[in-house]
């Protein structure tokens, strides 16, 4: 790119930043003002009805699904423009997205693998903020070991529909969702990642029971979901029976997408809240705490640059943006979850250490303390969900370094 093109690109990026910032300033106010910095991890049950209304407001402004191809209702923005949107959204205090699972996970998977009828049925509701999705992967005996799923799907020979029985767990916002995508075993004789089917299922039907799981912080943002003969229509199989593992893994590839930059902007806010607390209570005078805050700042910059490399590689390889989903994962992608989850867990501990003895006291009138306490509590789960540290290290060793696979017993 020559200097003239570079200047034009920079001018366009600055214009987009101003456009997003102006829209957020004009819209994240009034009835939506209370949503600023709310609804993120550990706070997902905050104002769910209002956040659904916010999704519809975003859709009206054309700010949902900005990376989806235009043919499927998105803006088709390139990676850097999507990064700008995510960063400016988070900079303005944009709330946690109720539509994240739909827009960031099942939507791109439908674009990559769905039939034309499935795309026409499901994509508009996601784009318009009128239908919400949750993820049915983990089970009591199949969390990080996803290939061990025991939820069963049996085909009704009379209709071709599927009857589903089993249990999913840690299902975020299932009680606020309309649909769930479910990985189930359709071949009872199969083992591991063979014989699986990927189903799209409505939650409001007989045979589905949703039970909340109360967390140590008091929230109930995720649930157990029980299936007892619940139905998935024959037309709502994504891919073919037996192809479930490939679809499921492709979906997880979309999970490490553009929204990571918005996540990092939220981390920036959290680090800012910690430094404000340190100035307010004098903890900044502790040299060791100052060094830890500096290391957190440096680690956040490393995280950003690595994410940009990851996203650039995905764009060049054709994956991660709602395309074919078939590009191999870059090494930067393999290490990303391990890096940010450990960094964020350490940030949670730093927050508690900066608060000092007050970290153990509950005072709902102290918004700053409550916010940091919630962040610290939830950050302990970061190295467990979406693949534990141990699983992430196995992935890095086997897929990134080409080392022999770890011996795994048959279940």
Automatic annotation (TrEMBL):
Gene3D superfamilies the record matches: Acyl-CoA dehydrogenase/oxidase, N-terminal domain (1.10.540.10), Butyryl-CoA Dehydrogenase, subunit A, domain 2 (2.40.110.10), Butyryl-CoA Dehydrogenase, subunit A, domain 3 (1.20.140.10)
Question: Which cofactors go with this protein?
Answer: FAD
Q: Where is the Acyl-CoA oxidase/dehydrogenase middle domain?
A: 134-228
**Pfam families, per the entry:** Acyl-CoA_dh_1, Acyl-CoA_dh_M, Acyl-CoA_dh_N
Domain Acyl-CoA dehydrogenase/oxidase N-terminal, residue spans: 15-129
Record-linked InterPro entries = Acyl-CoA_Oxase/DH_mid-dom (IPR006091), Acyl-CoA_Oxase/DH_mid-dom_sf (IPR046373), AcylCo_DH-like_C (IPR036250), AcylCo_DH/oxidase_C (IPR009075), AcylCoA_DH/ox_N (IPR013786), AcylCoA_DH/ox_N_sf (IPR037069), AcylCoA_DH/oxidase_NM_dom_sf (IPR009100), Mycobact_Acyl-CoA_DH (IPR052161)
Keyword line: FAD, Flavoprotein, Oxidoreductase
The cross-references to PANTHER family, in alphabetical order and at most eight, read: ACYL-COA DEHYDROGENASE, ACYL-COA DEHYDROGENASE FADE29
**Name of the protein described by the UniProt record:** Butyryl-CoA dehydrogenase
């Amino acid at each position: 790119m020559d200097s003239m093109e570079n200047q034009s690109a920079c001018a366009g990026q600055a214009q987009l930043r101003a456009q997003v910032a102006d829209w957020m300033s004009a819209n994240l106010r009034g009835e939506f003002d209370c949503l600023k910095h709310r609804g993120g991890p550990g706070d997902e049950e905050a104002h769910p009805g209002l956040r659904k209304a916010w999704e519809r407001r975003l859709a009206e402004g054309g700010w949902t699904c900005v990376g989806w191809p235009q043919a499927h209702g998105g803006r088709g923005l390139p990676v850097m423009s999507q990064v700008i949107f995510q960063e400016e959204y988070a900079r303005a205090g944009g709330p946690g997205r109720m539509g994240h699972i739909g827009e960031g996970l099942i939507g791109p998977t439908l674009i990559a693998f769905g039939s034309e009828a499935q795309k026409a049925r499901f994509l508009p509701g996601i784009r318009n903020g009128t239908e919400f999705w949750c993820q049915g992967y983990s089970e009591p005996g199949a969390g990080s070991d996803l290939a061990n799923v025991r939820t069963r799907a049996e085909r009704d020979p009379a209709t071709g529909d599927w009857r589903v029985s089993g249990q999913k767990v840690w299902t975020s916002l299932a009680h606020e969702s309309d649909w769930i995508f479910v990985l189930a075993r359709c071949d009872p004789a199969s083992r591991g990642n063979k014989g699986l089917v990927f189903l799209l299922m409505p939650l409001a039907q007989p045979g589905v029971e949703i039970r909340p799981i109360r967390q140590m912080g008091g929230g109930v943002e995720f649930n157990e979901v029980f299936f007892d003969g619940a139905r998935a229509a024959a037309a709502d199989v994504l891919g073919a029976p037996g192809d479930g593992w490939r679809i499921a893994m492709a979906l997880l590839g979309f999970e490490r997408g553009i929204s990571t930059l918005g996540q990092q902007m939220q981390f920036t806010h959290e680090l800012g809240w910690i430094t404000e607390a340190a100035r307010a209570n004098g903890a900044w005078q502790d040299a060791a705490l100052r060094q830890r805050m500096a290391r957190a700042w440096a680690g956040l910059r490393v995280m950003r640059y690595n994410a940009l490399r990851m996203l650039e590689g995905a764009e060049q390889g054709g994956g991660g943006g709602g395309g074919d989903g078939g590009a191999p994962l870059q090494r930067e992608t393999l290490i990303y979850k391990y890096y940010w989850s450990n960094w964020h867990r350490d940030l949670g501990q730093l927050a508690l250490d900066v608060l000092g003895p007050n970290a153990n006291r509950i005072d709902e009138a102290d918004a700053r303390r409550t916010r940091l306490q919630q962040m610290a509590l939830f950050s302990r789960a970061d190295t467990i969900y979406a693949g534990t540290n141990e699983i992430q290290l196995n992935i890095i060793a086997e897929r990134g370094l080409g080392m022999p696979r770890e011996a795994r017993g048959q279940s």
